[in-house]
Specification:
Shape: globular
Radius of gyration: 18 Å
Helix content: over 70%
Number of helices: 9
Order of helices and strands: HHHHHHHHH
Largest sheet: none
Length: about 180
């Protein structure tokens, strides 16, 4: 039987090595979309997502069966994802930027390029928001977490999260109006 999001914690508790691939399958698309909105490039999102799953597995492997069985998987994964994105951004600021020059070379257009373009476009818009506001918007409107879950992930009061989301949406509306004007 293939586990669902509701039965995943029990599956992980029973057999981590058999259950973990199901965790990846159930959450990879959601994580990628949300992470892509928090990082600069598609490649950064792929690397970050791999780091998130690696950290999740390492963490779960040290837990007792009872603790894994009571896990709220989605908010826990997003806590790891948010912290990983934050750490990567901090590390990236400390390193010089590498630029690859490809003169006269065009990337082939693949099936996902239109979707990637839309993600890139939104990532650019979201980059105008400060860190906590950007993460709160992504977790609420891209990932679909509840306010209380976002507050838990970010370690901030619910009122602050609501204010971040409100200010962020207002800023995004302003940006969209400037573009369409």
């Amino acid at each position: 039987m293939t586990p669902t999001r509701d039965t995943l914690a029990a599956c992980l508790a029973a057999d981590l090595d058999r259950g973990f691939p199901h965790l990846v399958t159930l959450y990879q698309r959601e994580l990628f979309s949300g992470i892509r909105s928090m990082v600069d490039t598609h490649l950064d999102a792929e690397d970050t997502m791999q780091d998130v799953f690696l950290r999740a597995y390492r963490s779960l492997s040290g837990w007792e069966e009872e603790r894994r069985a009571s896990l709220a998987v989605r908010p826990w994964l997003w806590t790891i994802a948010t912290n990983t994105c934050r750490n990567r951004a901090r590390t990236k600021k400390r390193r010089p930027t590498e630029v690859e020059l490809l003169i006269g070379v065009q990337d082939p257009i693949d099936e996902g390029s239109h979707e990637d373009f839309a993600l890139d476009e939104w990532a650019t818009r979201l980059s105008f928001l400060n860190g906590p506001t950007r993460v709160a918007i992504v977790l609420r409107h891209v990932v679909g977490l509840r306010i209380d879950e976002i507050a838990g992930v970010l370690g901030r009061p619910e009122g602050t999260v609501k204010a971040d989301i409100h200010r962020g949406l207002k800023r995004l509306r302003t940006l969209l109006e400037e573009v369409s004007a």
